[in-house]
Amino acid sequence: MAEKPIRTGGCACGQLTFEARGEPKRVGLCHCMTCRKISGAPFNAFAIYPVDQVTISGAVKTWSATPESERCFCPVCGSQVFDRDAGDEIEIKLGAFDEPNLFTPTYEAWTKRREHWLCTPDLKGFPENRGEVP
Known about the structure:
Blueprint: E1 6-10, E2 17-21, E3 26-30, H1 33-39, E4 44-50, E5 54-57, E6 61-66, E7 69-73, E8 80-85, E9 89-93, E10 107-109, E11 124-125
Parallel strand pairs: 3-10, 10-11
Antiparallel strand pairs: 1-2, 2-5, 3-4, 4-9, 6-7, 7-8, 8-9
């Protein structure tokens, strides 16, 4: 039986780190106003893992946009690293992984807020929140 890959990452200053074991459940983009505002970018790119496959080390500061989720960032450098939801998933920002090009998004949410110059023809799109995406 093959071992599950372990992928590492963290914040810009190295204080907050993570290990993600195995493959993500799904990988996507979000164009919602909250993602745009907290990142200062036109969209957020992330990998969703089961929470029991991710180990977080270091201090974490949180902010909640909704009762269902927590935005988690490093209290030292302010880097966004991951979000937690009220369920059993954790959303890790693709830019927080130590290696680039690990994952390719398969869907995007809140396409009604997508910048007109951004073309993503191969992704399944949802005008607002996503439906069930495998």
